[in-house]
Amino acid sequence: MKGNSEIMKSGFIAIVGRPNVGKSTLMNKLVKEKVAIVSDKAGTTRDQIKGIVNIGENQYIFVDTPGIHKPKHLLGEHMTEIALETLSNVDLIMFMLDGTKEISTGDIFVNEHIRETKTPVIVVINKIDKMSNEEIEEKKTEIKEKLGEFADIITLTAEYAIGVHKIFEVAEKYLSSDVWFYPEDYYTDLPVNKIVVETVREKILHNTKDEIPHSVAVEITDVETKKDIRKYEVNIYVERDSQKGIIIGKDGALLKKIGIEARKEIEALIDLKVNLKLWVKVKKKWRKDKQFLNEMGYKIKKKK
Fold this sequence. Notes:
One of its GO terms (cellular component) is plasma membrane. The chain is α/β, with parallel strands linked by helices.
């Protein structure tokens, strides 16, 4: 932890937007470590994930949130609730837009909720590598006309880290605390087991299509650590028998591939050999099952 310097500053910065605009990709580029899982499927992020960056005397705590959307089930309600709660508890909101697409009803939905807070908001236009200077200016005009005025607008491409440095320059003036919240060597506050769960889920997202990613939950049921190896027993839950068959694959081939990809990444993270046992189980309509969601750690709140 840093000492008692008078110029130390820290603050929380939320990355929000509709699903699949590049929030998790941006988080990983800001932190320069893999913090949030990334896929091209909407709804990848299900929880609030923090990425911590220390530059000089400043500590920037970025909060990646689930995409804000109109929910269709209890899990969706939980994801949107987390994102909305975050907005009032940070120093700055970064509202992320896909610059290559027209501002959608989804973007307007997010903007309406942002406007309900008193938190300063900057807009981040993503994917400028696919836009001309003229298109970028047209996008800024469209933002003003459809969404209103914002404290600032930043243009960047998260995938290639183009322009990402501008976020630190703009965010610095919003850092409100004179203490650091995390030790100097932290880049996330996620526990290792949570990262293991998210890594397995990411490999499933990368290796499956259509409805499978949204219907998957992952849970560690047992961990055993010996001198040079750690064993994980992991349950993968799906909602239908047909989905179970897809994830297992012919002769277990896809499940084996998922396990190998996840194991390699986990081994690099914990610097130990990993034995990863994956089991696929059917839990019908689990996304609407309050008790199951709470058991999985989603902490679904009671309706008022």
